[in-house]
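Render this sequence as a predicted structure.
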Amino acid sequence: MGGQDAILHIDFSKGPFERVQTLFKDLLNSDDDEDFATEPLRKNVRLISASAVEGTQKAQAIFELDVTKSLCNKAGNLHGGAACTLLDILTSMPLNIIATPGHLDAGNVSRTITMSYLRPVPAGTTVRVECDIVAAGRNTANLQGTIKTLDGKVCVTCVHDKVAFSTKPKSKL
């Protein structure tokens, strides 16, 4: 099981950290070696925490990223495309936390992602990647991602809108 298929097999009895950890491991253990995003995630990203606000659709996952030379542009800083790809994947992880049977449990696709590059992230830096659900409805979700230095300086932000799928068929009136 790998990649997007993993979200179809959510163990709803697990807590937030275990859900994200399982999805992340399944993504990294994908048999698809042609996926350009898997290798940087496998080598450079660690899940630090995952949590949900009980009774809401709010959730957060926090990762650490080692910015290696392979993720950088010619100036030696985190490449904008690499930052966007990483945030595209990582900001989607908290959706697995709030999924329930028949709700947000059958995958998702990006609708829009808006990036803001605020300060360079040099090769050799370890940063924190905070991924939050701002709002999630029946079919859409609005996510926010922030890449920060370990001392809290914001380097990159994104607003990520997703279309989310559910296994439960919609009723017709």
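Summary. Strands lie at 45-52, 59-66, 108-117, 126-136, 140-149, 154-164. Confidence is low (pLDDT under 50) at residues 1-7.
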